[in-house]
Amino acid sequence: MPAFGQDGATAASQHSGSTQLEDIVVTARRTSEALQTTPVAVTAFSNEALVERQVVQATDLQRAAPAVSVGTGGTGPSSILYISIRGQAQNSPNSFSDNAVGIYIDGVYLGRAIGANVGFLDLSSAEVLRGPQGTLFGRNTTGGALNVTTNAPTDKFEGYMKVGYGNYDANLFEGVLNLPLNPTLAARFAGRYEDHKGYYPAPYLKNALGSLDASYLARGSLKWEPDNLPVTWTVSGDYTEQHGSGPAFIVAGLNPASPVAYYYGLAQHQQANPGLIGVEPDAILSGALGFPVPSSDVRKFIPQGLEGPFTQFGNPAFPNFGGLLSNNPNTSYQYNAFGNPKLDQLGVLGDGTKGWSGTSNLVVDLGNLSIKSITGYRKSRSFNVFNLSALPTAAGAGYSVYRNRQFSQELQLSGDFGALHFITGLYYFREHGTESTEADTFEYTPIGSPVFNNANYVQSSKGAFFQANYNFTDALRVTGGIRYTWDTRHINRHNTNTWKVAPEFQTCVVGPNAGIPNTGDDCNNPETVKFNYPAWTAGIDYRLSPDVFVYAKTSGASMSGGYNSRPVPPPYSTSFKPEDVRDVEVGFKGEFLDRHLRTNLAAFYSWQSSVQRIVNAVVCEGTPPQCASTQFVNNAGKVHTYGLEAEATLLPWEGMRIESSFAYLHARYVSGSRFENQLVGGAVVSVDRSGEPVPYSPKWTANLGLTQDFDVGKDRLTLHGDYSYISSRQFDFFTTGDPAQAAAVAIANDASRIRGYGLFNAVVTYAVTDPKMEISVWAKNLTDKANFTNVFNSYTGIGVTAQNPGPPRTYGFTLTYHWGE
């Protein structure tokens, strides 16, 4: 996927040695304007600001912007980015559901969150926009947007080289080269490589979990500005590749009454070994396949008396055994573990992502009018071999493969006629790909039934928009805009189960051939759904003085609906509707003390309907039951949210800069809006779930950064420290209508909440003037605080709730050498 950018520019780029706060220019409304007179809640960063705060990838933005929660892990590969703004988020890598926060790179929308969590490289600016952005940015921006702009080529010969090393054997190599080719044409090249060992040693695994085995990012760009045409044309292409051992999981709850505890005897072991980390899918079979024979520690998880059958490859008494994909009729390279070492689950977990992209930005300046064309193409392949249960068994084990191609084209016409400024445009987006997941929920048990979820999709979106600002006076301005979107989503499911051992493989679970084993016919279940919906904004703003600005606005946006590719148990629906959000927001932006103090405030209230939620479940069919895990999207009633956000920057004395932010968020379901039919003892029971906490909604987030510069002759010494805090977050919650499940559900709900934590980071940089270079010594999570980023909850299904731990204390140094003008 795309290589994010990083370099000095207009947003928050002021050095702490400045005597006054400088202007910040943002593009939050698809045009350049001053932050302090933009009626949007936005936090902007330049390269210098990002480097100073050690924001080296998108997950670090949680430490620098209010009301933002960023996580990785979950059920996807390490490259996936789960970003939540104002409590609105996506928590599944499912290719058929979308994010509530749009990610834009050089104006191009990134349709899939997989591949978004890569390092920042050669960036011009990064902006976090909070609140619905549907009018100008389109669908799937109900929570906000991350707007990233990479550095375009310049007319200067310049560049830098950077090397770094840290604990966990972390290595970094990065470089940028800018070349003016002639007076009208320039080129720019950037590259980055990094790796580090795993953070969490895991029993029975070859590698520690959380490792980054290799990450490659490269980008090349050309910029053409002819003398005789009012044209600026920038084209770029990038490549990203990343491999590692995958996210770590730690057991947060083990259900002693679950099938996994019964068949594996893990309840007693978990009590003796709390906080067990690590898994070994297929470890029991590895000896039969030429891998090291499992230790006695592994064998003690096998029920007494079944040691023999459990160590025999393909034992007929247990027809669902056989190792990952050993008898998969689909032998194509990307699905066959034995044909692709990167998918080999025997003794190792792992994931990886490859991506390619190309972008074209063409601007024609016609004076009062400007025409802009933004064209983007992206292609990606990702996989992850996982065990979501965090147990040294195959409970929750499996693999996923994601393939995606997307194309987008946007045409904009903007005009500036004194008091009137407008922008209008047309938008087209199309993506197609495949998603394949093999789930071995209870693979080594008599009830196990591996399910192969394989689906291909084609999804398109068309939109038209118009937004205008009109200045009645130099101080009073009104804004209005509308957008209309048309979505078409097509899916064809080819899901099968019990396909590992003949003659039972290729049993369809969807479509007209459902339940027919080994017919030789394809499993096809095509579905098409269409949606159309508006987005809008209307607002008024007023400059009380040259340094004080206030605004009020209302906005609406939608997150697209779709179909689930994986099995959906009754009484849930296979399809889900768009989620709609509308809000009101008031804001204050001011500068005081002769521009030594800047304060920005925003308060909002939002209404969400047809809220999309991720459900983890186990599907059992037949007699005796055959069971497998599944994950799907469901509409879940209405949510009301309100909150307050504040940001402040202070220059108290020469060389000192203090930056802080905090956010308060209150989210709740509307009483009586979320009734759900549940099957209890074979009967349908209506359950009111509107009293549940809203997931991904921390009540408090806060950040504080201190930077002090000292002049040392012609050189400079910079000391920086920052602290970030996020309060507890509920990732999953369930209200059951079955009294027999009430106690287990209560435990699961508690295990699905991540406790609040605070992280402290520091960096010391010495910058030399001649030669121009810097050396930095840095540390993240300096106090080695336990922190978690995501949750997988299947306590009442598989029998396990597991959490993804974040990085422990890391530290190291970087050395950067600059050349050119």
From TrEMBL:
- Domain of life of the organism in this record? Bacteria
The TonB-dependent receptor-like beta-barrel domain sits at 321-782
Domain TonB-dependent receptor plug, residue spans: 35-145
The annotated topology with respect to the bilayer is: Multi-pass membrane protein
- Mention one GO biological process in which this protein takes part, according to its record: iron ion transport
Q: Where in the cell is it found?
A: Cell outer membrane
Q: Which Pfam families match?
A: Plug, TonB_dep_Rec_b-barrel
Q: Which family does it belong to?
A: Belongs to the TonB-dependent receptor family.
| PANTHER family linked to this entry | FERRICHROME IRON RECEPTOR-RELATED, TONB-DEPENDENT OUTER MEMBRANE RECEPTOR
Q: What is this protein called?
A: TonB-dependent receptor
Species for this entry:
Sphingobium baderi
